[in-house]
Amino acid sequence: MASLYLLIPIALVFCVLAIRLLLWAIGSGQYDDLDKEAWRILAEDEPAEPPAQPGDTPAPPGERRDGQA
Questions:
Q1: Residue 9, SS3?
Q2: Structural element, H or E, at residue 35
């Protein structure tokens, strides 16, 4: 019985903390667009450039590394 005097206030603090975090997430826009992230994983990414080798010089802007414009 004595442990309930400790556990009930701790449970109430956790509930208040969870509600405050939920309200913060709603207020900051975390739940505004739930479908965007679901569709984002299906979209194709742009291909990544190969990593630069230690002796390579950077390509000028607008020119690819393989020499084609």
A1: helix
A2: helix 34-40
39-to-34, 42, 44 alpha-carbon distances in Å: 10, 5, 10
DSSP label at 56?
Answer: P
Q: What is the C-alpha separation between 64 and 58, in angstroms, rounded?
A: 10
Structure tokens at 54: 């230690």
Q: Could you read off the pLDDT of 3-44 as tens digits, one per residue? A: 999 999 999 999 999 999 999 999 998 888 888 888 888 887
Give SS3 for 17.
helix
- 7, 33, 35 from 1: Cα distances, Å: 10, 47, 48
Residues ≥6 apart with Cβ < 8 Å to 56: 65
